[in-house]
Design a protein that fits this description.
Layout (H helix, E strand, L loop, with lengths): L1 H14 L2 H11 L10 E7 L3 H14 L3 E7 L5 H11 L5 E5 L3 H4 L6 E2 L5 H7 L12 E2 L2 E13 H6 L11 H9 L1 E3 L2 E7 L10 H12 L4 E4 L2 E4 L11 H10 L18 H6 L3 E7 L3 H7 L5 E4 L12 E10 L6 H12 L1 H8 L5 E2 L2 H4 L6 H11 L1 E2 L6 H17 L4 H19 L4
Parallel strand pairs: 1-2, 1-3, 8-11, 13-15
Antiparallel strand pairs: 3-13, 4-5, 6-11, 6-12, 6-13, 6-14, 7-8, 9-10
Helix pairs in contact: 1-2, 1-13, 3-14, 9-10, 17-18
């Protein structure tokens, strides 16, 4: 059949393994021949329509049996609109969404069983950040792209302090803060680094999560088909990684600390960096071009995130852009065919390049490129990790309360982390039934 041939080509492109592709075609494509006429596949996503137009046109021009339609949805309303649409029976067949929605998508996405898509194939194909979509029974979503957190630095500030490079390890950040920060009493006229607050630091939760994960705590974990909180580690004599991360993070906003370099009265970290008053700014790779555009006169550069010197592996945190088919789609085989076509090398790159994202495919990331910045972003994507955030808006509140309790003296670090752990457990139990 023509459709089976198309599906096989797509899967071969995705896997690069002809034999395995043939196995999966047999597993998921055997009922395709029963469908008659043109099938319409509706895609909803948070990706800008301009990034999808060429992809949709290419699919529609090369496949006469399937017509693809794409509708862009706002990140703010995507989930609520999806819930309503699926309940009415008129929802999309395929969805593209940021990793923050993964936990909430588990009962709405079709879980592709490992018998049809082996876990070893997924892990060899995609970077580790995509593995958060692996459930106890199958794959909940496939990563279209990742957006790793990078360290942007002001060249002029470094030169003025006779520094040849920004910190490569977190322990170097202490001396860097002492050297670079400029104070007028308790007022900060120039800051070395934006750490110590969740209120006015862009991507603060991601930065804190990365420090925790580099120290050995994934914040949440999957065990026995369930998502659990691992923030706290009660009953041991070892200081839990999250407690170490909290203490390290908060010292930079402690006015009594000799590394004091940030407070909640300062502008947001992005604005302060663009104004030339912040030496280091932590932000995703997708912000690189916008930083250049917003202040063409800012003499800045970008490098990989600092690492924990004692760690066994390099790591940064990434947002992940996932694609899934919906559980209620009446055209599962065609929907899956389109999903895999979006994941093919040329297709997915045309989507993510326009967004400033990096590929999640290992084979694409290791391919030589001429642009040194692209090489750096690809390397960061290769070492990227992610965590399952049960509900981003609520974990923002949980983490901020944890920090505030320590700063205000209401709790010591151990008590604040234990409280956050309990709140995380409550949130997971009410939002995510299984994983």
């Amino acid at each position: 059949m023509q459709k089976d041939g198309i599906l096989q080509k797509i899967l071969i492109a995705v896997f690069g393994i002809g034999i395995l592709a043939g196995v999966i075609v047999f597993a998921v494509g055997s009922s395709q021949s029963s469908q008659q006429g043109t099938v319409t596949i509706l895609i909803w996503g948070t990706v800008p329509r301009g990034s999808m137009n060429q992809v949709v046109n290419n699919i529609n021009q090369t496949n006469k049996d399937i017509r693809v339609m794409y509708i862009q949805k706002s990140v703010d309303t995507f989930y609520s609109e999806l819930v309503d649409a699926l309940a009415s029976g008129f929802g999309p067949d395929v969805v593209i969404y940021p990793g923050d929605f993964l936990g909430r998508m588990l009962d709405k996405a079709f879980i592709l069983p490992y018998e049809q898509y082996p876990i070893t194939v997924f892990q060899s194909q995609y970077v580790d950040a995509g593995s958060v979509a692996l459930t106890a029974t199958g794959v909940a979503g496939f990563p279209l792209g990742v957006d790793p957190v990078m360290m942007y630095f002001n060249r002029d500030i470094l030169v003025n302090n006779f520094l040849t490079r920004p910190p490569q390890y977190w322990d170097e950040m202490l001396q860097f803060a002492k050297t670079v920060t400029r104070r007028d009493g308790l007022s900060l006229t120039q800051s070395a680094v934006a750490l110590g607050s969740l209120r006015n630091i862009n991507h603060a939760k991601d930065i804190f999560a990365l420090i925790s994960m580099q120290a050995g705590n994934t914040l949440t974990d999957k065990r026995d088909g369930k998502l659990i909180s691992v923030l706290s580690n009660p009953g041991t004599n070892i200081v839990p990684p999250v407690e170490s991360a909290v203490s390290f993070f908060l010292q930079f906003s402690n006015t009594q600390s000799d590394v004091y370099s940030w407070n909640s009265g300062l502008p947001r970290s992005l604005d302060m960096f663009l104004a030339g008053n912040l030496a280091l700014y932590f932000g995703p790779s997708s912000e690189f071009q916008s930083l250049r555009t917003r202040n063409p006169n800012l003499n800045f550069d970008v490098t990989m995130m600092p690492q924990l010197r004692s760690a066994n592996r390099r790591m940064t945190l990434s947002d992940v852009l996932f694609v899934s088919t919906t559980k209620v789609s009446q055209n599962q085989i065609s929907a899956r065919q389109i999903m895999f076509s979006l994941l093919a090398p040329d297709m997915h790159r045309s989507i993510i390049d326009s967004m400033g994202y990096q590929s999640a495919r290992r084979d694409v990331l290791v391919a030589p490129v001429q642009d040194p910045y692209k090489t750096m972003f690809n390397n960061s994507a290769m070492i990227s990790m992610a965590w399952v955030d049960p509900l981003s808006e609520e974990t923002d509140v949980i983490f901020e309360k944890m920090m505030n309790d320590v700063v205000s003296g209401a709790q010591n670090v151990t008590g604040a982390v234990a409280g956050a752990h309990k709140e995380m457990e409550r949130l997971i139990s009410t939002r995510i039934r299984q994983f």
